[in-house]
Amino acid sequence: MEGPDRVLVTGGAGFVGSHAVEYYANRDAEVTALDNLSRIETLETADESRNTAAYNWNYIEENYPEVELVEADIRDYETLAEIVEGHDAVVHTAGQVAVTASLTDPRNDFEVNAEGSFNVLEAARNADSDPAVVLASTNKVYGNNVNDIPVREEGDRYWYDDEEFEQGVPESLSIDGCEHTPYGVSKLAADLYVQDYAERNAVQAAAFRMSCIYGTRQFGNEDQGWVAHFAISTLNDEPLTIFGDGKQVRDVLYVKDLIRAYDAFLSDPEGKPAVYNVGGGAENTTSLLEFLDLLEEKTGKRTDISFDEWREGDQKVYVSDISRAREELEWEPEVSFEDGVERFVEWYQNR
């Protein structure tokens, strides 16, 4: 199974995007990284020391000089269409990434996530090179329906109290009849466009509804990227605020495993489903409190913690049922959470 030869990564200076750039550059594909380098401006709690885009842009420039770096915006259709032409795959990770920012500026969130993704699909549909597309979607498309699944408390964590969800949330969970956030709605609009274009054979495309993705070159903050945020705060002796009681559980996936899932689709998209829940699955889960224990084990440090109210759109438990990705893409996670955290800590200390 050979992967694509000419790959465009939107959001190529982002955390996930930069790993896609690196993956394909290491495979000797021709890679274009497109980014508008705006992320630091859109996250209220981010600061320059955690400027993911600037760090990763420089990292790519220094380590992969053959990669073409293009500063552009997915909202500019004419420019985007010119860039897409000639590629045989598009990894679409550019987006507005935070629920909090979507609540304060829903218009920007819509224009980037919904309209920007529509532009990517239209550019792919109209390109003579006929690229396949993967979209970085999110578990937030399920909205508050996730919180209707009964949960029970078990020590320092919650877990699903319904046998139907023992392996996590499947792609068939309803997206309807519930409260969403603007972020969830804009990503769902993009997700639905991907499904529509795929079903009509306009573009070979798939939406990957991601759970918690973590790994090296991620600078998290309170708005987004909590695994990195907790690890960096612990390493820097900076106090942490937990929203809720810390027993909320997520499945966690190391970023390089995510890119392998993208590639499994892009390398052979013919006849594949257009939606995948992707994360660590039921075998790779942690609560916030459990993660603090793991960090203490790996770093010998435990930072000061305070607690605050639950935030809008938060979920007590979200775990991806990754059965479809296993079956259709012959993919599963390879990096355990313990190993992934070790890699992150080593990278941050040596960066």
Automatic annotation (TrEMBL):
Gene3D superfamilies in the record: NAD(P)-binding Rossmann-like Domain
Residues in the signal sequence: none
Domain spans labelled NAD-dependent epimerase/dehydratase: 7-279
Pfam families assigned: Epimerase
Stated family: Belongs to the NAD(P)-dependent epimerase/dehydratase family.
Name of this protein: CDP-paratose 2-epimerase
Organism listed in the record: Halopelagius longus
